[in-house]
Amino acid sequence: MTTAEILKCAVKAKANIACANTDIKNLALKKASQFLIRDTDKILKANKLDTQNARGTVSDVMLDRLTLTSERIKAMADAVLDVIKLPDPVGNVLENIKRQSGLDITKVSVPIGVIAIIFESRPNVTSDAAALSLKSGNVCVLRGGKEAINSNIAIAQSFRDALKETGLDENAVSLVTDTTRNSSLELMTAVGSVDLLIPRGGAGLIRACVENAKVPCIETGTGICHIYVDGKADIKKALDIVENAKTSRPSVCNAAEVCLVDKSIANEFLPKLYDRLVTEKLKDNKIPVELRLDKFASKIISGNIASSSDFDTEFLDYILAIKVVDGIKEAVAHISEHSTGHSEAIITEDEKNADIFTSLIDSSAVYVNASTRFTDGGEFGLGCEIGISTQKIHARGPMGLKEMTSYKYIVRGNGQIR
Questions:
Q1: What is the pLDDT of residue 75?
Q2: For the residues 193-214, what does the mean pLDDT come to?
């Protein structure tokens, strides 16, 4: 089907899925989880084709992001089951107001409608988005990148089979198979068909959506995440956290890209950080981190001299920009200037400095003595996530079920006129 035809079917499916009760939605999710396991071989075959086509054209870390395994498919299926356990966000009474006029006004949560999600090379997004959309009574129109098209088709079909078997409209989950720029632009400008657009990917995709969208759009994903190692930091904690935040999965948006180090601790901390991220990685035949250093850090450890753009880059790779700062005020000022509003962390044993940091840093998630890698719907107890909003509208941070609802007022009267 063309993108226009998919949108037409999606609009028709809105009422069917919005009116589905919790038991029916949960049954469809249970079947979707079962069908993902059932279709594992088919999904892996499709994914193999995608990875073969992508090899040599994307970095190793991006290839890892694209690659599925039996274990990763099971994790996707388990995430769907986790969504079943969560409360239904639809139909909840958010507020009740009784007026002197006799009117009874009830504010009730409702689905948003048709949600279009444009994303890049992570096929698990197809499963996460479909599960959350289904549980929240929304229709999702998914448009993934060309690198994962075969994987996305196979995963989406598992959900469509589950919807059909449950008696729901299979068009509640649709995948746009046209991976040209035209299909993205169609979704961005589908006024009257798309109720909300969620781009999930790199800076280029986010910018394109924000600049071209004529439908409501939530900006997500781009993560220039900072870790500030305070002068009162526990060195071991700091080393463990920076290593985890940078190297556990560098291709994701909650990975750390910048490490700020207080000058009072720099001479002690930086050589140990170099050993952890470079020397020990080489010794263990693992990928070392390329360090891009400001002039002060470069006097203490070896690495490449950082350019000014390095502190405004989401590397999504084994690269870390390091800057030595003179106290928490300079750290906060640097983050305020360069952050994308995603996730920032302070490593400190000083409660006063922790309070200053959490009060002044204006990002969707602010950590004290923990890795930025926890900014994730599953880790926040939301099941999975539709994306991580870096805006300040109704959704901020990991977007789970509640963030996929709006509300309406139901007003009951007995003949009142104004």
A1: 93
A2: 88
